[in-house]
């Protein structure tokens, strides 16, 4: 009995180090598309992504119709006025009927470690709000806790 407890403890500690090493690898870190627009050397940058969901309910041995939803289509535009001043905008069309300006801000860089943004920005509350592109979470939909408890995509007008 003591042997199994020791073996379980050793395996748990070993797995902890494996997962920690993967989390610190840049290849697995989430990517924020707006950050990529700001880091670009191009004067004008375009980007975007789309998300189409198909959900098929199963249960009770009955065949039910699935639901196909064009969840979102996002178009991004960036313009670099100078090495220090950039404009970033993100326009989102949801469910083929709602159009949002999700982000639109000016970014002024005093140095690579000191920047000021002003405009309509995402509030850095929770990881899904800031890294909300569909390639950054596992599954078809955003995690339920980030859809119902933490407001996503939460954006406010401000300076910071």
Summarize the structure in words.
It is a single chain. It contains 4 helices and 6 strands. It has 160 residues and is α+β, with helices and mostly antiparallel strands. It has 2 domains: 29 residues; 129 residues, no CATH class. A hairpin with a 4-residue loop joins strand 2 and strand 3. 12% of the residues are buried.
Structure described in brief:
The chain is of the alpha+beta class. 24% of the residues lie in helices and 40% in strands.
Question: C-alpha Rg, in Å?
Answer: 21 Å
Structural class: alpha+beta
Number of strands: 6
Which stretches are low in confidence, meaning pLDDT under 50 for 5 or more residues running? Answer: 18-25
* Gap from first CA to last CA: 57 Å
What gross morphology would you assign? flat
Largest beta sheet: what is the strand line-up? 1-2-3-4-5-6
Beta-strand percent range: 35-45%
Mean pLDDT: 79
SSE string, helices as H and strands as E: HHEEEEEHHE
**What is the tally of helical segments?**
4
List the helices and strands and how they pair.
Blueprint: H1 2-23, H2 33-39, E1 44-55, E2 67-80, E3 85-94, E4 98-111, E5 114-122, H3 127-130, H4 144-148, E6 155-159
Antiparallel strand pairs: 1-2, 2-3, 3-4, 4-5, 5-6
Key descriptive features of the protein:
2 domains, about 40% strand, about 160 residues, single chain, alpha+beta
